[in-house]
């Protein structure tokens, strides 16, 4: 992993934290109290990501003592991360919760972060304020506000030293694109052990496609099974009414097709736009006869590059469902190449006239 710290050290020399910072493995930053048997580290799944990839984080508390340690939290919020010095939104219910860190073992929290821009980034882990329920485990009080410790009152939180990663620009798209929503461009399945992994605007940015809705948001978009969870096929659909699905392209597209669906009896219109937002063409499907089955495939081609496409239901109160998007991607000829093509055509035409 590239070290982006200007001091060429993982640990800031100006940190007011008086506890000892150590490192467990490359790619993770660790904070620990010199006297305590608890340490904490955050690590990324890799050091470099392509725009649109999920950045997967693991925050781990390690117990080096010979006794189990239980962390008690005042709510269900236990841990989060700090990305580029911004604390992730805190989510938790107003109920006490606990985390067991077994003797000579560890306890981990996993996070997946999306929507990170191209560039260099830093991330730190944060374990919420807590108390240790079994202070007999001989955990020495720590100095500062970043180390786990036991005391007679409220507990401190823990913030690890940051680690660094980068997000790079995708390679230019020169081949046709097919999106069936069964996986993301990096090969990760859209379905995980606990359901689908969701959708975000640049989830398919590696393939030159950005997805949103008519409300310019992916909050109402979801990847779901297309037959009330009785099918193995996954589709993209809107959760809220009055939302069309939009796809914008980073490369010249000359043909778009997609399988579409909506509510019972409703149709779907697919509209193509150029790079100035002008309508190129549109086509409407038949009405849905057997919801939740998809009604069929819509297909449109264009002689000018297609910059965006929108799928909208005939009823503004109905949602939209799409699958199997196909994009015909072709490079736009350079001006010199275009001149050569025209010259060739004129030359051939001249020979035919002479003959």
Rg (CA only): 27 Å
CATH architecture of the largest domain: Sandwich
Count of strand segments: 24
Distance between the termini: 68 Å
What value does the average pLDDT take?
78
Task: Characterise this structure.
By secondary structure, this protein is mainly beta. The protein has two domains: 28-168, Sandwich (Immunoglobulin-like); 177-329, Jelly Rolls. The protein contains one helix and 24 strands. The chain has one helix spanning 335-354; strands at residues 28-32, 38-44, 48-50, 55-63, 69-73, 79-83, 86-87, 97-101, 106-113, 119-127, 131-132, 158-159, 163-168, 177-179, 191-192, 195-196, 209-213, 221-225, 234-238, 245-261, 268-273, 279-284, 296-313, 321-329. Strands 14, 17, 18, 19, 20, 21, 22, 23 and 24 form a nine-stranded antiparallel sheet that branches. Strands 3, 6, 7, 10, 12 and 13 form a six-stranded mixed sheet that branches. Strand 21 and strand 22 (279-284) form a beta hairpin. The protein is elongated, with a radius of gyration of 27 Å.
In short:
The protein has 355 residues and is mostly beta strands. The chain has one helix and 24 strands. The chain has one helix spanning 335-354, and strands spanning 28-32, 38-44, 48-50, 55-63, 69-73, 79-83, 86-87, 97-101, 106-113, 119-127, 131-132, 158-159, 163-168, 177-179, 191-192, 195-196, 209-213, 221-225, 234-238, 245-261, 268-273, 279-284, 296-313, 321-329.
